[in-house]
Specification:
0% strand, 2 domains, 21 helices
Amino acid sequence: MGIVQKESIKLTVVFYLGSALGYLNRVLLLTNFLTATQVGLVGILINVSVLYAQFATMGIPSISNRFFPFFHNKEKKHNGFFFWGNVFVFGGFLITTLLFLIFKPVIISQYIDNSPLVVDYYYYLIPLAFASVYFQFFESYLRSLLKTVVPTFLNEVFSKILITASITLYALKLIDFHQLVILYVGCNFLITFVLLVYIIYLKQFFIFPEKSKLYKRLLKPILLYGTFTILSVLGSQIIMNIDGLMIASKLSLAQAGIYTTIFLIATGMALPYRSIQKITYPLVGRFWKNRDMKAVSDLYDKTTLVMMIIGGGLILLLFGNIDSIFRFIPKEYSVARYSFYLLCIAKYVDMITGLNGIITITSKKYKYDLYFLLTLVILTIVLNLILIPMYGMNGAALAAMASLVFYNSLRLAFVWYNFKMQPFTLNCLWILLITIGTFGVVHFIPFIYNKYVSICINSAVIGVLYMGCILFFRFSPEINNMVYKVTGWKYLHTDKSMFE
């Protein structure tokens, strides 16, 4: 857990700095300087380019996480892994672009009536997706080398600083909206180029093929794994982005703009989990290679407990300050209040189910994760088709929550049945009860008109009650020892929970 804790702390700091900039850009600047329709277009460009890129990468990021340990040998230039990964990624981009052009009439027909602005910027998706494809490829390669902080900083912080500068130019009327979109595409190209320079700086840029017997032995499992992971990762991104796309198609681009903004705020909850995922993914792959089931199980238990503590604190902060949060953005966004509740619950469930997905997809039973994901995709689309016409954007949020709860329940049961691992303990139940109890107390705090004062008071109450109980009862040695290093309070230092 040492390397996970050390690296995840660094990444969490980067993620939250990036989240603050993302909040500034998407929630404060865009909503106050752009119309909801223009905000919706930005959201759609991001959503579609992500789906585009996920298909075009041909599963290489996941293949890198799973198989790079077998090729890892700097003296042998990692047996040409970077070269062949680049071949597959570039080929995947060409194939995806061809399909994107062929099916243009079909895609446009879905948006021409309710969101015509999407049609005007259709071709901008190609260069945007190209930048995203290669950033993902470079990032996954570096992640396999356990170099995660720089690519995360570029993606989460540096890119958003560039976007802040672009929005500022627009707010000062130095550029128009069309030029703002062009600048956004350019920012994505720049961070991809910088990441390439970083790889060269690390002397890990091996562009030429290398002969290796490993390809003959591993080619079949790599191709099979890659095929499944293409569908798996694409399915995951469909789940993340389909609701915004369907709202734009069925309702309007303005409604999609409101929903994607609220979705972004709720997504902030998952940042600690994302940082832990980036570290644990290659580690779990190595544990499977060494057949170290105990290490997998220990990692599963500890990360789940930590995520439950952090997730509980974050959902309390968001729910406890929801009135103040909505006072930072235009009033038209307040229609998404209930969507916000539902999306936060969905993210919380996703966090507390732990590493079940990573454990499954890095094991020999990785195929089953695809089956679960396909079920999730179908369920999400069907529920959106039913619920969006009935309840608008709230229907999309309800579909997202119901689908994720069902999906994670399936994966949790699968890992439990096949690998005899389940991460929940009595401590998890206590943490859940403390979370609910703290929310009950915060709910009765009187309304304060000044949003800054309100946030300070509510957050202070949450911090004292929730974190006070977590630290006092020492539910997680990792959390206690982390705070001990900062405060030096000897009571916090522990090797086990009081309830063990």
